[in-house]
């Protein structure tokens, strides 16, 4: 790895750009810069969390996508905070500008069901041709609330699912690009939780490209008060990810760093971090006054020309472009925006479905009166012959040497099956197994789920003499069954639940389960539940088939482990009596021999 990086850094002329590459970079800077200027002029009092001070982010992202696309990647899933989101939607993903501009109209109401969300939280999905590579790309920006880094595991889970269902086992077609702010990247624990999933066999995506928009300030807090590490990116050292620091006011250096990052991801299949050292020309938002708390910093910032003006002057001095070329590029994009604005004024209703980040065809459809279409529930039973195969396989002696206690458990399962009875473990196995035999993928993830917290499940059996040799009965039901993924996770709730939520968004015809070690442990994943699960469909029309399993029981293990706080979920799913929308979650409380689930 050291020699690899040396080749990219020390080889003479390695970062040189051709005249055509410089012109493309200039054109992308024009779009990034003029877009923010246009919004500021049209809606001067609106919060938009603009990109001023880091306009080079747009050319940087497009460069990464171009390089990766040229090397075979097709699907790019993007997670980011709100700063620069509108610019990314417009200039990286090519969201129709008229649909973006109409989000500034306070009088528009959604044409479809749901509450919607502020424009700088919205996501999208788009498929288009990359004109530089002439190859297809699929771009998805995942909707995210103001919990800046909460989207990280969701993106990684969505990428993992896309890879799984597309047969991309090596992660050579789909990748994640995560954007971060400097203060959030060093301060939010979910960053650490997500990065620790990067090399785990059932969670890896083959590497994520991280871009830190390093404003050198967090809202109003100086770095000397917001982190103990020298750099905001030091958390990435826990997985030995390369960290590339670059001056955002040197666009050609940024392009070279993006080349290095994209090729590292392609060649090594590991995370890589770009520290884009920039500044925030405005305050935390356009209505904020940053000089209250950073007076000297903003005195200096006000004196700085923007990066477009600096780079234009550089290319003029080199003779790479003329002033007429620059003016033509600016005029061309200004016309595009003006035409889109005129179209936006004719729009009288907004569609939340225009902002779907994970579309499922034919789900949540409404009739002409906007009443949800209720579809007939398909048969959910299984035949005796199928259940018999599952029960026999689940209770049979495995082809490995197992613990004597396991033999007793298997014998007990066999007796129950013969008596046509089932406990929690056998009932769950029958449910999972019947789905697998019908061709539906089942994924079970969480702390200690392979054995089960209560030593009841035992879906992965371990050889007592050979380290690492295991047997999974539910993966051996038939030669035509779908894959069963069951995996112990890292000791994380926030990160892993977010990952499984992302995984569940890809394919409705699957069963994705996250199980807490004890039911009350969901509370350290509460932001995912509050911001994504309970409200995601209403805010973002988001679709998910995630099932949360929260085992708990009155077993003398203290007040926490005796309750999964069902009342919280009931409260979150409660709607105002005047609302016409139904709850987007279903809650089931099941009695078992151990307790409640």
Topology, please?
Layout: H1 2-10, H2 19-42, H3 57-70, E1 75-79, H4 85-91, H5 97-101, E2 109-110, E3 124-130, E4 135-141, H6 151-165, E5 174-181, H7 182-187, H8 189-195, E6 208-214, H9 223-226, E7 243-247, H10 251-268, E8 272-277, H11 295-301, H12 307-318, H13 323-345, E9 349-350, H14 384-395, H15 404-418, H16 424-437, E10 441-446, E11 461-462, E12 470-471, E13 484-488, H17 494-504, E14 510-515, H18 526-533, H19 536-540, E15 546-549, H20 558-561, H21 566-573
Parallel strand pairs: 1-4, 1-5, 2-9, 5-6, 6-8, 7-8, 10-13, 10-14, 14-15
Antiparallel strand pairs: 3-4, 11-12
Helix pairs in contact: 2-12, 2-13, 3-10, 6-17, 8-17, 14-15, 14-16, 17-18
Beta strands, count? 15
Structural class, judged by helices and strands? alpha/beta
Q: What proportion of the residues form beta strands (DSSP E)?
A: 5-15%
Number of helices: 21
Radius of gyration: 26 Å
Helix share of residues?
Answer: 25-40%
Main beta sheet: strand number and arrangement? 7 strands, mixed
Label the overall shape.
Answer: globular
Low-pLDDT runs of 5+ residues are 579-583, 592-597
> What is the strand arrangement across the widest sheet?
3-4-1-5-6-8-7
Mean pLDDT: 91
